[in-house]
Amino acid sequence: MALPANAEICGCNGVCKGEIVDAISKKGLFTLEEVRAHTKASSSCGSCTGLVEAILAGTVGEGYDKAPSKKGMCGCTEHSHDEIIAAIKHGRLKTMDGVREAMEWKTPDGCATCRPALNYYLLANWPDEYQDDAQSRFINERAHGNIQKDGTYSVVPRMFGGLCKPDELRAIADACDKYDVPEVKVTGGQRIDMFGVKKEDLPLMWKDLSEAGLVSGHAYGKALRTVKTCAGKTWCRFGTQNSTALGVKLEEMTWGSWMPHKFKMAVSGCPRNCAEATIKDFGVVCVDSGYELHVGGNGGIKVRVTDLLCKVATEEEVLEYCGAFTQLYREEAHYLERTAPWVERVGLNSIKQRVVDDAENRKALYERFKYSQQFFQHDPWAERAQGGEAHEFTPLRIA
Question: Which one of 103, 112, 215, 396 is least enclosed by Cβ atoms within 10 Å?
Answer without folding.
Answer: 396
